[in-house]
Amino acid sequence: MQVHGYGVPEHGQPFVPVSFTRTDVRPGEVAIDVTHCGVCHSDLHFVDDDWGATVYPCVPGHEVAGVVTEVGAGVTKFKAGDRVGVGCMINSCQDCDACARGDEQYCEGPHSCTLTYNGPKVPDGTNSYGGYSTAMVVREEFVLRIPDAIGNEDAAPILCAGVTTYQPMKHFGLKAGDRIGIAGIGGLGHMAIRIAKAMGATVVALTRSRDKGDEIRGMGADEVLVTTDEAAMEKAAMSLDMMISTIPVKHDINPYVGLMKPSSTLVLVGNMNGFDDVQTAPLVFHRIALAGSLIGGIADTQEVLDLCAEHGITPEVKSIPMQQIEGVYDELRNGNPRYRHVIDMQSLKDDADARGRAQEIPAPVRGEAARR
């Protein structure tokens, strides 16, 4: 299957049109015509190799929505014409304890899960290419059904931003009536606000910007706490049952710890760059857990899609053509937009010039086919 997309051939280079071959549908797999793909802050980190783990060429995109075009032998859940999504993974061992309990993102197989792009989580020298492309082929177990109440453009960001914030709320036991703080009100944070509200929590949004209060309340937050206001922070001390921090860069975590009640949990979903100085005494004296969470499993991803459909939750999106992706990355480098960019892939399908000058790159590897 010949596929066109946009990718970064080497570190430090700009996006260019690319062309590559995906292996045709095998038993247990689903072929998808990509209609939309969200742009995640993780895409930027991989393109820029901020985490020192990028495999080039890099064709990002793990918020993929589209339409099934073909199914392989043995596929029972999907048929041609179905609207479907693909999130952050396309494969895992399916045998280990983590996979059995629905935590494929923590797969304990030899190479862990295979990411939608950048190959296996535990590298083995192979690469996979994501949704900045016209078509994908994915094993059935990693395909999500998009509910009728959500359009493809809105569904795409839920496949990462939605499940990344929903899964720790579920795992760490957020209950109706709990007070939850959301730190970092960008593409992840605004989804966290809406999902937490749907789960019955009182939502306190944390921001450094005094002038963003009305905008953030419009997203559904019950309260807005300005973290640069020392008096307000002191008044809010020990008031939160849970916090989800989506802040993607190194920062001072200690003021946020001070907001947590005894026996509460502060969950990191954005920062993988560490902290310079974590004061551990408050954690010990108040039994505060500082935890991390990585995306979510396939069942949880389907759950959050269904939850969003049930409660009318959609992300703030800005639709862009594929050809504007370089400018979007510049915007992400300079801030944390309060919306999710979503690529309309029809823009690439209609671009004969881009296809004509596309750089041929090696074929991706998506792991073993399903056991059919």
Note down, in words, how this protein is organized.
The chain is an alpha/beta fold and 372 residues long. It folds into two domains: 2-150 and 314-360, Medium-chain alcohol dehydrogenases, catalytic domain (Quinone Oxidoreductase, Chain A, domain 1, Alpha-Beta Complex), CATH 3.90.180.10; 162-292, Rossmann fold (3-Layer(aba) Sandwich). 25% of the residues lie in helices and 25% in strands. Strands 3, 4, 5, 8, 9, 16 and 17 form a seven-stranded mixed sheet that branches. The chain has a six-stranded parallel sheet with strand order 12-11-10-13-14-15. A three-stranded mixed sheet has the order 1-2-18, with no helix packed on it. Helix 7 (254-257) links the parallel strand 13 and strand 14 (260-268). Helix 3 (152-171) crosses helix 4 (189-198) and helix 3 packs across helix 9 (298-311). The model has no long low-confidence stretch (mean pLDDT 96).
> Major β-sheet, in short?
7 strands, mixed
Mean pLDDT level: 96
The H-and-E topology, N to C, reads as EEEHEEEHEEEHEHEHEHEHEHEHEHEHHE
Q: Count the E strands.
A: 18
CATH superfamily of the largest domain: Medium-chain alcohol dehydrogenases, catalytic domain
Low-confidence stretches: none
Question: Looking at the chains present, what oligomeric state does this protein adopt?
Answer: single chain
Rg calculated over all Cα atoms: 20 Å
Q: Residue share in helices? A: 25-40%
Structural class: alpha/beta
CATH-derived topology of the largest domain = Quinone Oxidoreductase, Chain A, domain 1
The percent range for strand residues is 15-25%
CATH C-level class of the largest domain is Alpha Beta
- Please give the alpha-carbon distance between the first and last residues: 21 Å
The CATH architecture category of the largest domain equals Alpha-Beta Complex
Q: What's the domain count?
A: 2
Shape: globular
| Helical segment count | 12
